[in-house]
Specification:
two-stranded antiparallel sheet, 9 strands, alpha/beta
């Protein structure tokens, strides 16, 4: 799909700040697209929820939060329960583009990112989410050897203009309130990358390989 053909975009992430860290520059670079962000956790966390909606205001998009379990134990979620949570949060099931986590996550390792990716890809395959394209974040930290970096070999890779990156960084440090020495602030990628799928069969094959 050509960029000019994209009108509506759904971004589904596990946590508040994921949308900014992994796709914030892309969102800021395309204000002409109609964006909707679904964040699956922390709705009941008044501080994080307030910061999330402040971030969305800066990004110029709409969104909603859910209360997916995000406890430190990271007990695996029931697949049906996670899918149901996603469906209930959607404003519609029809979009030009859906963007979500990679099956292998963006860094080593967060089970909620991996579970979210699997659920979204399967919902797309089941036609419970309808879209012309699906993109998954394309980042890697090489087993914690460095901060997550956008993969230049991905289908889509963009080096962010300094002005765009500065706004993205400001959202992380000011709206979300992360200290400049925090992992989040130091991670904030200056490039963004995505694996691109136009066929559900290709995405399901990618999923079966763990997004590698």
């Amino acid at each position: 799909m050509k960029p000019g053909a994209i009108k509506s975009v759904l971004v589904i992430v596990a946590h508040p700040d994921d949308e900014t860290l992994w796709a914030g520059g892309t969102i800021l670079s395309h204000p002409e697209w109609n964006w909707f962000i679904v964040c699956l956790s922390r709705k009941s966390d008044s501080d994080r929820a307030t910061r999330f909606y402040r971030a969305l205001k800066v990004l110029g998009v709409d969104g909603i939060m859910g209360n997916m379990d995000d406890g430190p134990e990271q007990v695996p979620l029931a697949e049906w329960e996670l899918k149901q949570e996603i469906i209930q949060l959607l404003p519609s099931i029809n979009f030009d583009l859906v963007i979500t986590h990679n099956p292998s996550g963006e860094y080593t390792r967060h089970i909620r990112h991996e579970e979210t990716s699997r659920a979204v890809i399967e919902l797309w395959n089941e036609k419970k989410i309808i879209a012309n394209e699906l993109w998954t974040f394309a980042y890697d930290d090489q087993a914690k050897q460095h901060f997550p970096q956008a993969l230049k070999i991905a289908n889509i890779f963009v080096e962010l203009p300094e002005k765009i990156w500065n706004i993205k960084y400001s959202i992380i440090t000011k709206e979300f309130g992360f200290d400049t020495e925090s992992w989040e602030a130091k991670t904030t990628p200056k490039g963004e990358a995505f694996w691109q799928f136009t066929k559900t069969t290709d995405a399901m094959h990618w999923l079966s390989k763990g997004g590698l």
